[in-house]
Design goal:
The protein has 2 helices and 4 strands; from the N terminus they run βαββαβ.
Length: 96
């Protein structure tokens, strides 16, 4: 399923900047950054729960915000992209 993950981290102090970097690094391990704090991740249920638990343990619930949007397996009809940074095929071939 495609999961859209967004976060907002309070970076007014050094610990917030560190949390922001750690959250972003973890999300990059699971998906594609599509905007500064927005990631598209193709995950199964177990991966999703694992990532969710990991990210929640990293954030400060008093200062930060984390959202998961579950777009399902037929997400191609639910996502439209306009403007810069061309879209990518989430389950396509990855060439490094």
């Amino acid at each position: 399923m495609l999961v859209l993950i967004t976060y907002d981290v309070n970076t007014q102090d050094a610990s917030g900047k560190k949390r922001l970097r750690k959250l972003a690094k973890q999300c990059v391990n699971y998906g594609q950054r599509v905007q500064n704090s927005v990631f598209e991740c193709v995950l199964d249920a177990a991966q999703c729960k694992q990532l969710q638990n990991t990210l929640i343990s990293m954030m400060d619930p008093q200062k930060d915000s984390l959202r998961f949007y579950y777009l399902g397996t037929h997400y191609q009809t639910k996502v439209e992209h306009f403007g810069a940074k061309p879209s990518y095929e989430a389950e396509g071939v990855l060439m490094i």
